[in-house]
Amino acid sequence: MVPPTMIQTAPVSTSFSPIVTKDVQIKLKSDAKNGDVKFADWDNFKFAPIRESTVSRAMTKRYFADLDKYTESDVVIVGAGSAGLSAAYILGKNRPDLKIAIIEASVSPGGGCWLGGQLFSAMVLRKPADVFLNEIGIEYDDEGDYVVVKHAALFMSTLLSKVLQFPNIKLFNATAVEDLITRRDESTGELRIAGVVTNWTLVALNHDTQSCMDPNTINCNVVLSTTGHDGPFGAFSAKRLEKLGKAPKDITQGFKPQAEQQQQPSAASADGFQLGGMRGLDMNKAEDAIVKGTREVVPGLVIAGMELSEVDGSNRMGPTFGAMALSGVKAAEAVLNAFEV
Ligand code: 48N
After folding, report:
1. 337 alpha carbon – ligand 1 mean position (Å)
2. What's the chain's average pLDDT?
3. What's the farthest any 2 CA atoms get from each other in the chain?
């Protein structure tokens, strides 16, 4: 076993065959036909040589540099679904100076937005959400009061590619938020959210199989939670709030769904914070309620997208995504207004 200090940092010389001819021309377009299509001289093709440890170092030094950089973030977005990524896009566009970490439990970001509804491909957005599609440059069929993107994956892959290109945004996928970091103002009793507690998702899902597998942390100024309404961690922060000590009484301030939508909140927890619980499907009520209700629910914590339906007891909207995009826009506004300079 080579003691750590002796691990060679310089690249180890390799006894590979002579330097490969890296000048094998690879074309990506050909006008040839009838069996004459040929993009390269594959018989002489060979990649440049590499050592496995070089690949490992290329990945790990970047990942751990990012972990170090984003352990103090300005904004943390929990959940890379349509609402969280729409908010990330608006934040990245408006505030290139802010460090924004997106924590996504799945290996594949995108949440429920890779398909329209019941696994159909096309995706419906009611106007005026077409303004967001125009912004990120996605074509759609204009059907009057609504538009249709030919495949939800076209929307999600385009949005993802735009968000990931912002130099001040880092996506940590396959990583779950397991808890919230809280600060309590001892004089006012006000609870402020000051960051998130994270762990590899596979660890978070296996806490019952091992002794304590402690988490990591990210401190930040504002958390935006967009963890959706289903899945292994659905409505994560909303449910966590129900368990936190002494949620502030003003937690019920802000938009409340129309009176008839209000349902008796779930049994009040000891500290008085009550979840509304998502209600039955009503597209017209749901989409307005989610966009209008997107807000800072607890100081330092903005909730948007379908997770908000669990907080406010608003309806679900089913297979229409305009509210997700515009809730993300409103969430970016709420995050910037909640930002404590
Ligand atoms: O797509 P979702 O689930 O959430 P939203 O709110 O962005 O979009 C919801 C939308 O897809 C609908 O549900 C549609 C409109 N249907 C409505 C209806 O009536 O049925 O994305 C949430 C993301 C997912 O990718 C999860 O993996 C992730 O959040 N997530 C987490 N990531 C990190 N840590 C967690 N604790 C966590 N919990 C969920």
Report:
1. 24
2. 87
3. 81
Q: Kindly report the protein residue whose alpha carbon is nearest to atom 4 of ligand 1.
A: 228
In this structure, the strands spanning 75-78 and 100-104 are parallel
The preferred substitution site among 77, 82, 291 for testing ligand 1, maximizing ligand atoms within 8 Å of CB, is 82
Render 236-304 in DSSP notation, one character per residue. Answer: HHHHHHHHSSS--GGGG-S----GGG--PPSPPPTTS------EEE-HHHHHHHHHHH-EEEETTEEE-
Substitution candidate for ligand 1 out of 324, 326, 327, 330 with most atoms within 8 A of CB: 324
Measure 79 CA to ligand 1 centroid, in angstroms.
Answer: 6
> Rounded distance, CA 225 to CA 80, Å?
10
The 10 Å Cβ neighbour count of residue 237 is 28
Q: Look at the block and give the residue holding tokens 């950089």.
A: 69
Over residues 19-63, the pLDDT tens digits come to 444 567 899 999 999 999 999 999 999 899 999 999 999 999 999
Taking the centre of ligand 1 as the mean of its atom positions, its distance from the CA of residue 324, in whole angstroms, is: 10
Give the global pTM: 0.88
Question: Complex ipTM, two decimals?
Answer: 0.99
Kindly write down the DSSP assignment for every residue of 50-65, as one continuous string: --HHHHHHHHHHHHHH
Residue nearest to atom 23 of ligand 1 (CA): 79
282-327 pLDDT, tens digit per residue, is 999 999 999 999 999 989 999 999 999 998 999 999 999 999 999 9
Ligand 1 geometric centre to CA of 307 (Å): 7
The structure tokens listed for 202 are 């596979």
Token digits for 238?
A: 């909303």
Q: Are strands 295-298 and 301-303 parallel, antiparallel or unpaired?
A: antiparallel
Tell me how far apart the alpha carbons of residues 13 and 230 are, in angstroms, rounded to a whole number. 51
